[in-house]
Structure formats: C-alpha cells, structure tokens
Protein 1
Amino acid sequence: MTQRDQLLGELMKEAQGGNSTSYETLLSEVYMFLESYLNSKIYNKSQIDDVVQEIILAVHKSRHTFDSTKSFMSWLLAITHYKISDHFRIQFKEKIQKLEESLVDTNSDILNSLVEHQKFHSLYQALNELDQKPREIVKLLKIEGLKISEVANKMKLSESNIKVIAHRAYQSLEIKLRGKL
Amino acid sequence: MKSKELINTLSTDLRPVKTLVYGLKNYILILVIGFLSVLVSTTIAGVRPDIQDVVLTIPFLFQGLILLLLAILTTLSALQMSIPNLQTQETKNIAITALATWLAFLIYFLLHSSNPVGGWGVSCAREIALNSIIPSAAIFFMIKRAATLNRTTVSWLILTAGASYGALATQFSCNMIDPLHLLIWHALPVLIIGLIGLGLGNLILKKV
C-alpha cells in the first residue's frame, strides 16, 4: 500500500463514521484520479463526466463494504473497472438499437419508393391500354398540364367533346387500376 | 448535475454507516446453515435403505465430493464477489470447473453404462428445488447488504450453491444410481436453478 492509498483509506474510514469533511476531501481526490484515469480509457470526452459521476455514486452506495485494513485503491479500481465495462456495455446496446432503428427506417423508405414505383408502373400500363384519342387527351391534360380549350384546339375537337372523352377515360382508368393497386 | 456538485451533495448528506466485512465467522456460519439444511432434509426425506452398501462406492463418493466442493466454492465465491475488493475470479472458476467435472463424470458413466434406463425422477428434482430454498435464502440475506457489482453472476452463484446443497441432500435419499437418471433429474435441475438465478440477479440484488 502506498502512502496516498493509506491516506485515502483513512479518509474513507472517517467517512464511514460520518465525517463529511473527510468524505468531501476523499471524493475530490477520487474525482481527480478518475478524471485522468478515464481519459485514457474513454475516447469520447463528453462522456467522462457521466462515468465519473456513476463511479462516485457507486463509491457512495458501497462505502460500507470498504475494509480499512485493505487497499482503498484496489477497492476503488474494482468499482471503476466494473462501471467502465458497464458503460461500454450500455453504449454497445444503444449503438445496436440505433443501427436496428436506422435499418427499419431505410427498409420503410425502400418499401415506400417501391410502392410509389408500383403505382406509377400500374398507371402507365393502364394509360397505354386506353385507345389513342382518350390516351392523348389524358396525357395532354394531366401530364403536360394543358387547359381544356388548348387541348380542344390541338385535337381539333369541341371543349364539351374533350370533357366527355376525358371523363370516360378517367372512369376506364379507375376500373383498370382498381384491380392492380 | 456536475461532479463537483454531486460531491458536495453527497458529503453534506453523509450519514455514518455500519461497515460490512466478511470474516471467517461469516463463511463458517453460511456453510453451517447449508450443511444443517442438508442434514434436516435428509432426516425428513429418510436415507436410502442401501446406504451402507453404496456409501463407499466410487461413484457415490466422487459425486458427493464434487457436490460438496461445488456447494462450498459457490457459497464462498458468491460472498467474495459481493464485496468490490474481495472479487476474485479464481473461486468462481474452480466452482465452474467442479460443476463441469460433475457433468463430465455423469456423461462418462452414461457412455460406459450397459443399460441406462433413466427412471422417473420428478420427486428428485422437486426435492433438490425444495432443499435449495433455505441455503439460497441464507446466502442471499447475508449478501443483501453488500455491494454487488455483477448481480447476475452473484445471483447465479447463490442459486447454484443452494441447488448444490439440495443435490447433496437428495443423493442420500434417492435410490437410483443410474447415470441417465442422475444427469436428467439431479444435474439438470441444478443447472436450471442456476439459470433462474442468472435471470433473477437484476431483480433481487440492488444496483450499486
């Protein structure tokens, strides 16, 4: 046992008896030790303070198990090592969970685009199955976005005629798509 | 909360604590409770009629010795692992070796047995489970106040220790010496009780 170890052991013994000054000194020493110790163990520096707090809480909860005839540092290191591996275990679990969630998201994106693709393909097929005139009218109205008067001029038909043909074409498309979507 | 604030809070609210140090007295006490429970359950269940003929046979002695070793080692290991600076892997590893040796011993005898019949043994499994309650509870109550870091392992050790005492007691009352029977109705219950312990660890032992 080193001199420092003995000193920390003495402080813990006094803390077990209820001396809060000794306890504060001890925990401050423990804090400084842990900060530098964890620096070499945990690469994500933002997590060090959380782990230090976890260890300090564990020291507090298990202070009654410290035997003052034994080394304080070995007692502290046993707690520290367990808490570090616990931290990595939790981190690993979280990473796996995140990975699973992102896989689910990716899968649902793929699924959505597949459904969209399928819808588009069915619509394209149904449109191609129409006669030439109604197919042309639907394309001009819905794909090229022309007005009824413009389509009537282009097709050399009356506006009411265009409306009737377009209406019948929509009905026909609806029937064809009902079985496919 | 920052670490400095935590230290301040913990030291301000500090209360004196009664120290928990396991000494030889504790180890002996817990072993005595275990062996007393073996004695009581053997007395209640009754000793097998041919005990005088089998007690000095190698399979009976060897199995008894292994179970005795397993019970002692798992008990000691459970106590040791519940105190941070007493944690050693050696006792636990020897206990696991003892358990593996018992299984290997039974499998060896099973493979060299001319006519393994097995035999129905629900009563043996039930007896092991019942006989494991008192030793397991005694170890658990002794460990309850400690600071168990690895709760699942300690809980496995507690229940395996209890089941080992149970299996040791059952050995004196069970008439069957068939290896298949011993493997299914004596060893398997010990393993299953231990597995239950693995699952119970986080529930029965408080987190540090």
Protein 2
Amino acid sequence: MNVDRDLIPFVNDVLPALGVDGPSRPLQALLIKGNRKSVFPVFRRGDSRPIVIVKFARDPVDRPRIENEKAATDTLVAWMPGLGDDILAPGVVRDIGNGIAYARRASRGNPLARRISPVPAGTGPDLSEKHVDLAVGWLIDLQVSTRDRVEALGGRDTALETMRAENPAFAHLDPDTPAFARVAGAVADGTLPLVVEHGDYNPDNLFEDRRSLNVIDWEWGRIPGLPLVDLFEFALQSAKAAAIQGVVRSRPIGAEDVRAALGDNPFASHIRARVAGAADALSIPAPLASDLLTMHLSRYFPPDAVEGIVTELPEVAS
Amino acid sequence: MPETTFTDFACPDCGTSLVAAEDAWSCGDCGRDYPVTDGVPTFVTDQPYWGEMPEPVMREALGNAREQGWEASLAAALPQGRGETFEYLTNPVRAQWAHFLPFPQGGRVLDIGSGLGAIAVGLAAHGFSVVAAEPVDLRARFLRIRAEQENLPNLYPICASVFEIPYPDGTFDGIVMNNVLEWVAYSKPDLSPGEAQQAALAYLLRKLKPGGHLHLVIENRWGPVLFAGMKDPHGALRFTTVLPRFAANLYTKLRLSEPYRTYLYSQGGYARLLRRAGFTDATFYGMMPSSRNYFYYFPLSPIGSLKYLLRTSFDPKHPGVSRLTNTVARLPLAARAFRHFIPDFGITARRPE
C-alpha cells in the first residue's frame, strides 16, 4: 500500500461518507508505526489537526479484527445515533493496496492516558477521579442503556465459546476452572447480563474533549460481551500507563499493575467503588464480579498465578 | 518468483554479464569468478566480520538455522534471546516507512547493508522484488535461510558491498540505504568522508533506472539528543556530529587515535550531497524518536503535521510539558525551526530521466 497512490485517494473518496466537510485542500498523511498495523493521521495541507485516521493492516490475520471494528461501531451508531456525532466516529472499510484499511473521523481531544501523572512507586496511579468517572460512567451508561437490545440479539449459548475462539488471549482458559464454570453457568441461566463489550478499554483508546468522551479502537468489541471486564482492563492499563510513563509501551501487564489497579491504594479504592456501582447498575452479584476478574486476569497470567494474585486483593466489588 | 529474475549479474569490476559456472558466477571478460556459498553469490573479498553480535554468536546462529529454524537459532544464540537486539535485527515492522516510497508496485529494489533482513523482509512483504546486498557473508547466508523459511521468493540475498553491486547500470526501480551512508567512508580510505559518500551515491545513481528513487534513512547531524551530549552512535564520542569537521577530526584522533569518518549532515547538507551526486527532487521525512525504533514517520513539508507532532509527541504523560509544547506549537516559527532538529531523516531522491 502506497500513501500517495492508494491511501490519499481512498480518504478523498470517503470524506463525505465520514461526514467530514470543509475546504478541499490537498491531503497529507503521517505514519504512526504499530506492531501489526500502520495508523495514518490524515491532514488537510497546512492544518495542525488530523481530520481522518486510517488504520491499515496487511496481514490477513488482522482483517477480521478490522471488520469487527466496523461492525461493532455500525451497530452502536444504529442503536444510538447520537453516539455517532459525539462519541463514536463511524468508519469505512475498504481493500486498498495489498491490505485492508479502516478510515474514521479523527477523534477530538487528548487520550486519557495523558492525564495520568507520575507517582512514587507503590502508591498507585494518580489518575484523577473525574477521569475515572468519565470513562467508567460512559461505559456503564452505554451498557445499561443497550442491555435490552443486546439481550434481544440472543447469543447466550455461544457467548463464552465465541470469546475463547476469537481472542487468543483466552485460548488457554480452561472451561473447568471454577471461576470460568461459575461465569458460564450464570451466562447460561441468565443471572449474568450480557452487554456491549469494548474489548480493549484502555486509556490510550479514550479521548477526552471538553468533558465528553471519544472511544476508539473497537477491534475487539463484542456484542454480546461480558460486563465489568472493560472496567478491569481500564484499571490495569491505567496502572501500567502510570508505571511506565509511556517509556516502554509494549510491556505486558504485571502483578504490580494488578496491585496498583485493584489493591490497597486510593486509586484502587475508587476503582472498586465504581466496579461495585457498575455491578449494582447491571444487577451482577458480587461473587460473580470476582469470578469475572479472575477470568480477565487469565489473559495475562497462568491459572495458578491468577489465583495467588486474586487472593491478595480486597473484594473487587466492595 | 524464479531465481533467474535476480541473476542478471554484471561483473562489478568490468560490467560484463556473468555466466553461471559450477558453484560460481564467472566473468568471460576479466576472468574473475564469484563463488556461490549456500546459495548466496559472493562479490566481496576479504570483508572483515561486522555485526551487532560477535562473530562466534553469528556463526552459531547460522550453523543451527536450517535445523532449528532461523528465529529459534538466533534467539538461542543471542544473550538476551528475543530481546531488543533480536527485534532490531529482524523485525520487518521497521520498514513501515515503505508505505511512503515512490517505487512502482512490484518494482525491483536493492537494499544495501541488509544485515539479517529486518528492512529487506519488510520491503519484500510490501511486494517489491528485493535484492538484499550484505557484505558480511555469514549474515547474507543467514538471510538466505530466513528468506527460504519465510517463503519469500521475492527476496534474494547476495554478498556484496556498496561499491560492488553486481548488476548492470539502470537495473533498479529503487535503492534503500538504511543507516548505511554514514559508514561508507571506511570502504574508501583514500577519499575524504564526504568524497566517499558522494562517490557511493553517484555509483548507486547509475544502478537506478532513469526516474528511479533512492531512499536513505539516516541521522540528523543536529539531532537534539546529539546536542544534549548523547554519544554519537557511530563513534562513541559526544558532540562529534555537532562540532565543525576539523574539530571533530582532531577530537577523534586524540580520543580514539583515528580520524573522524562517519559524517552526518543537516537537512541542507544531505540535499547538497544528493544534488552533487546527480539526484534531484530530494524529499525529506522526519523520524521520531529515532530511526532505530521510530514511532512517527512524517513529511517535513508542509509544516501543518509538524505542529500536530509538536503538540502530541513529547512526553505526553506529563501535563506540564504538554502545556509547554502546546504553547510552543502555536508560535509562528516553531514548526519551521522544529523540522531542522528532527532526530532522524528518511530521504527520497530521484535519478533524473
């Protein structure tokens, strides 16, 4: 895929579909290098803010993810048209060059990760409560307001198997582990509500602009998905972002991040309070919240390690 | 892709077409033979080993590559396994700037100093037909195994140096030099560093088709970290790039007992060097934080996106710095000044028609 030959003509072509208007100056792009995908902020010549972001993937393995992002955002925008204006930017997917491209209107504001300040080691991230509340509040509002629609879609029978099949991070998850079995039972008997799940709800994907939130990167979005796991991911990734200060962006989540996110510190207390609020709002029994956390941590740690880590933590939904 | 696509060799000495002989390519005119070892034609002689890892480690990795697979053998040989060095040496993601290359689709591309193939494999994945020229035979042979195991018939490693490219003039649609130009003066000790670099560029110009493009990736002499006292990655001394050449030369002679030969340039300096070698239409891109491990790759003109980078790319986790860079980005001349202090450049330049 060549920027001048493929990408710029593609963006020019889809600007109306993305709802981007304005003067017709030539476009230019810059590259943000990813491990698997390339991301291109596209500017009007001379402008200092991008108008469109294009995600490009060449590897066929990434194609379903990009198609999933398009499907998830389209579903949400169709359900809640207001989201398309302020929170979710609808996008266009097309084959260009030797891969697949996903173009969406550029999100306004700054990533929430930028709001995380350095803190002394061991004291937990100093993510201000208002940013936690913004991120968590938005997600819970979305999940509560779309709960009936998600339920109407069906898919309870296959929700967990689909999750394990689609996400390599869960492939090793043993269905016989007690936490998984209890969650599976609650999904089957309807005790656990299924919701819109973002799948990668981390502060780099959340942009704040004048107290409104733009949520990007729905590649791992699942409808129906599991509740609370996005909150756990947000807490873990926030803790990691605070710990590494953007220096080593690819470091995996460690046990110290779990303690910073959900252990015994002011940030974790606030997170737990919000998780408890979310569990209340979605009518999730407290023990199931712990099971969901155990399941979520299995993305990052082997089963025996997860057990040890969870035992150390205070009750997650207290 | 048949191997014959890549074997239209010309003698690096006299330019005559080479003919295949047993385990060698032969020149019918000057009589030279160029041996083929493990499927890799070798066009250099007496090339001392050079690499990011010691020669015994490279030998061990090469020795086990066929049996264990290239990745496993390299990871086992490197002290840090699949750590930073492994990533740097092998990860084709480093060639993502290829999205901006003006080479034609499927064009024939020469990658000079290809090492273990990070850039060459990336270029091949973009669909180009890539000749990977690496002067150290252990590395070229390792890359040959890698290309076979990754099923990349459009990647053809040869053992050749920048001044001994075994192809006729006008062969390539594009030539890539990724962090190589600064080293070429060591191949021409009789020339000054600037003369050697200009000679290399002029030689490569001939290897391009008319209208073909050269792509350089190289550091900026005025890179901020070099000003701030970081050691020159080529000479292991501080401030050599920013000192006047005569002072840098004196300094390296005093400290290292050798002259200063790894010249870097400013944006204007590279433009002049390319122009003197016969290239036109030099187009500059910036790379941050560095070409070794960049996150941003961006055109240096026009300047709109530079304002965006000024606002967003520096220490985004620190609100104070963020406020400062936002303020600076609004200053009328900030972006114009900023582009002169970009750490590293990607540069494309064209051979005139």
